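dumping this here before i forget
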Amino acid sequence: MAKSRFEYVKHFEILDECLRNCWIVVRVDGKNFHKFSVAHNFKKPNDDNALDLMNESACGVMRLFHDIILAYGASDEYSFVFKKATKTYNRRASKLSSTVVSQFSSSYTFHWTKYFPNQKLLYPPVFDSRVVLYPSDMNMRDYLSWRQADCHINNLFNTCFWNLVHDGMTTKQAEASLKGTNSSEKNELLFSKFRTNYNDLPQVYRKGTIILRKKGCADYSKKDELFQPNSNSRFEVLHEDIIGQDFWTEHADLLT
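structure:
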C-alpha cells in the first residue's frame, strides 16, 4: 500500500495489549433487553426460544475463535473465556471485544427467524461487551461462579415475580411484595402459593448454559468451518453446577 503524508495519524492508536499469562474473558450483555423482550413477546419468566437463540449465537462466536475454551451464558448475557496463552489479535482488548460482540450480534439477528418464525424482528438488538483479565485459575473460576450465582438469584426473583403477575398482581404490586424477601421466603412463596418446587425447574433456568468443544473435534478456525449454522452438534451444551469442584475435576483439561 502506498504511503501518504497522512499516515502519521496511525501513531494516535492505543496499543491495548492484554497482560500476558492472564485469562481473557469477554462478556457480552444485552442493552435494554427488558424492553426488547417485551416488544418481541418473550414468555416470562423464561423463554426457551430466546435462550436457544443466545446459545446459537454463542456457538457462532466459538466457531470464529478457536482459542475460546468455554462459554457461559444466562438470560441476555454470555461470557467467553480465552486460553491464557492466546495470541488472537495479538491480545488486543479492543479487537477481541469488538469482534466477539459483532459476531454475537450478527448471529443473533441472522438466526432470529429460526427460533421466532412467527415474530418479526421489530428493531435490531444491541449488545455491549467488555474485556476483563483474571491472573489465576481461581480468579477465573470465581468469575464464572459469580455469574452462575447471579443467574440463580435473578431467576428465583423473576420466577416469583412473574407468577405473582400472572396471578393478577400489577408489576408494582409484585415488586413491592418481594421487596426485602430472602431466598428461603421466595422458595416458600412458590411452593405454598403456586405449588412449585424451585429445585424442580429446568436446570437451564437455574444454572444457565455452559458450552464446551467436544473432544476430538476439528479446529474451528479453519475457513470452511467458520459459518456453518448446522455445526452446533460439535459443541457440548451443559446445564450444571460450575461453582463446585466436580465440574473442574471432570474437565481438568480446560485449565492445562
